[in-house]
Prior knowledge:
Layout: E1 8-9, E2 14-16, E3 21-23, E4 31-33, E5 48-52, H1 56-63, E6 68-71, E7 77-79, E8 82-88, E9 96-102, E10 105-109, E11 131-136, H2 148-164, E12 168-172, H3 178-185, E13 193-195, H4 197-206, E14 216-217, H5 224-227, E15 231-234, E16 250-255, H6 264-267, E17 272-274, H7 282-292, E18 296-302, H8 304-313, E19 317-320
Parallel strand pairs: 3-4, 4-5, 5-6, 10-11, 11-18, 12-15, 12-16, 13-14, 13-15, 16-17, 18-19
Antiparallel strand pairs: 1-2, 2-3, 7-8, 8-9, 9-10
Protein name: Ligase-associated DNA damage response exonuclease
Region (Disordered): 322-341
InterPro entries: MBL, RibonucZ/Hydroxyglut_hydro, Xnuc_lig_assoc
Amino acid sequence: MKRSDLLVFNSKGIYCPRAKVYLDPWRPVNHAIITHGHSDHARFGHKNYLTHHSNIPILKHRLGDIPVQGVAWNEPFQINGVTFSLHPAGHIIGSSQVRVEYQEEVWVFTGDYKDEDDGVAVPYESVKCHTMITECTFGIPAFKWKPQQEVFKEINQWWKENKEEGKTSVLFGYSLGKAQRILKYLEPSIGTIFTHGAIENMTEVLRPQLALPPTQLITRETKGKEIQGGIVVAPPSAHGSPWMRKLVPFETGTCSGWMAFRGARRRRATDKGFVISDHCDWQGLLKSIKASEAERVICTHGYTDIFSKYLRELGYDASVENTDYEGEKDEATTSTEKETV
Length: 341
């Protein structure tokens, strides 16, 4: 079969010329298929949005009353003769891969994804294709995740020890995806779980779809004594802000794949680092690509040059394309939270 460019990269995003539709475009377009709700993939200004049903509440919460259509997993739909379908990406709740087929040629755009079943997102589904567009946020061998049950055991033990010392535990994670994953595995028997407003607002949107423990929002009226000994889940943007003052005395922890790097905790000025990511590690990326049976692999955002070079050594037709996607940011954000994982 002669391979064509079913999807192309241009200044607005990943485009299917035959269907006249974009996948996760970063500039306003007429028709957009959106893989998930993080702000680097779901942007304001498109005339029409299409996404998985479970992602609609997230998009509406973040983007307002947009014109959006929902589809189910593995539900084929046609646009100008091109067949599309959405498949679980395992990244965060509602996250999809987009399968694109025309005249027996199949491409898959993974968006952001992870192969570990976190018990929150619908688990990643391997989709056979000829060409796979993959992120490589953590595309070097240094990244190897421990099973999440081990990490959450460490988090709960850290909280318990801090409580015994009369300290509040403050855990940083992005408000969409990471925060709900943290909340699901915190142990309420240790104490009260408190939340920053950004975390609470997004969690309330998602509670109808998830079983999560009760949380208590920190407001202006909340007293420091009420919080002492509890655990607070907050976005990275809260770190070092005046909002933290009423939490004293506290210990801080950051949940991120970057915590696997020496020095990352110091750069973020955090007391403890927990290696939790909503992206694949090195082996997860390689395993997913192999399972897809793709011959051609296009690498976007992350360690693109290193990862694509390694894939070529394995015999893949691998290349790099630039996008506006960010993956999981290496540095904590400041005044405006970039919720990319």
